Each structure stands twice: as structure tokens, then as C-alpha cells.
Amino acid sequence: MEERVEGRNAVEALLEAGRPVSTLYVLEGARHGDPLDLLRSLAVSRGVEVRPVPRRVLDSMSERGAHQGVIAAVAPFVYASLDDVLGSSPEGPALLIALDHVTDPGNLGAVVRTADVVGARGVIVPKDRSAAMTASAMKAAAGAAEYVPVCREPNLVRALERCKQHGFWVVGGSEAAETVAWEAPIEGRIVLALGAEGSGLSRLTERECDLLVRLPVRGRVGSLNVSAAAAVLAYEWLRRTALDQ
User: Fold this and answer.
1) CB-CB neighbours of 238 under 10 Å
2) Which of 11, 35, 117, 161 is most buried, with most CB under 10 Å away?
């Protein structure tokens, strides 16, 4: 069963990465040399069938109506094996990001994009009650999903336990935490565990954390969007890792 990937950056990344694409649907009338025409040329060079279609067809195919004039029909997204990710993480600083029942695909995609930018080893999500790598997630990832392993685990707590066996320390984000992130040891081999907005980390996931941290808030809104919080904490890890090297 095929899936769809939409958005110029996401489609370009999957074509560059060599992910099997059966058909590329491009907005008809693309002028020579514009971004859509360049994508069309790239697809042709990869042996992909290209179909120019009117905007109404793309709108009907799009998950959220933000296709940017291009949609690719692709083979289903392949989730990575956590054991493979852990096995390919040698000793030394490494970052994983675990999302606890984050159901918005846009947030998942944004976290995958952050993971790629900071050089994280991968993203871990539970199999149930969690967003999957849908067209919306792929678009929000802006191509990063072709390079960052996304592991879909049946039990997040057990996944965190396996990470610990490979020398990772689990740091959970919580509004109720006593420790401010800037004062916490967020460096080395870290799994950042973040929950959904409102509900936060589940009780069992929170119990598996070695440390809980919070981001300081001065305004009236109580917290950041989960993808924004992930970016802040991931960059704090990157800052400290860069200082250590």
C-alpha cells in the first residue's frame, strides 16, 4: 500500500535519498527553472513517472491542503529498529528524543527535523496512541525523515530501559519539575522524553526518567508546544556537547 508525501522539501529529500517513488504529481503549468520544474526534472532522472495535474486534484489528494504544488506516491515509511540505532551509537555523547503519546503529526515531524539539525541519533515513539509518519509529519520534517531513524516501539518504558542499558540517561520534561533545564546535567548520552501538551508524560514514563527538568516561564502561557520544547532542550544538549569538544 502506497503512502503520500507532500511539500517541496520533503519530496526533494526523498528523491535525493532514493526512497522508492512510483508517481510524482506536479501542479500543471510549472515554468522552466522554477522549483516545481526542478523537482520534475529530478524525478525524471530517477525514473519516476511524472503527472502534471490541476490544483484541485492536488487539493483533493492532500492531507492538510499544504502540498506546495507537489505530491509523491511512495512506498510505505519504514521505521527503524531501536536495537540497530543503539548498536550504531558508540560510546560518547549521543542524543535520542522520545515522544510519549504525542498525537499531532505536525509536532512529530517538527521533532524529527530538530533531531536532524542537532545531530540526534533518532526519535522514539510508541506504536499506539501516537502520531505516525503520515504526509503531514513528513512535510513538517522537511526532508529530515529520510535521514533520521524513527523507531516505533510497542512499549515506550521498555524502550527507555534498553536505552539505559546502552549508557543513556533519561531526562524527562515536566512543568512540575523542580530542576530548571539550565541547571541540569543535559550532556553526554541523553534521551529527552517529552509528553503531549496538557497530559505531559505518563506516570510510567515519568517513573523511568532519571531526572525531570522544566523550562523557565515568565509569561502567562504555562508551557511551550512540545516540538518547541524539544528544540530548546535539544539545543541545550548540543551547546554543552560543543563546549565539551
Assistant:
1) 18
2) 11
| pLDDT in the model for residue 233 | 96
H or E element: which one contains 209?
A: none
User: Does 112 or 225 have the greater pLDDT score?
Assistant: 112
Cell numbers linked to 125: 515513539
**Mean pLDDT over each residue of the chain, to the nearest integer:** 89
Name residues whose C-beta falls within 8 Å of residue 178's C-beta, 6 or more positions apart in sequence.
Answer: 212, 214
Q: What DSSP line would sit under 121-179, residue for residue?
A: SEEEEESSSS--S-HHHHHHHTTGGGTS-EEEES-HHHHHHHHHHTT-EEEEE-TT-SE
One-letter amino acid at 143 equals G
At 197 the pLDDT is 72
Class of domain 3-74: alpha beta
- Of 148, 211, 165, the residue nearest 185 (C-alpha): 211
Location of each CATH 3.40.1280.10 domain in the chain: 82-244
CATH of domain 82-244: 3.40.1280.10
Contact at 8 Å (CB) between 201 and 216? Answer: no
Query: What global pTM score does this model have?
Result: 0.84
The CATH 3.30.1330.30 portion of the chain extends over 3-74
- The tens digit of pLDDT for each residue in 208-245 reads 999 999 988 877 666 778 999 999 999 999 998 876 65
Based on its alpha-carbon atoms, the radius of gyration of the chain, rounded to whole angstroms, reads 19
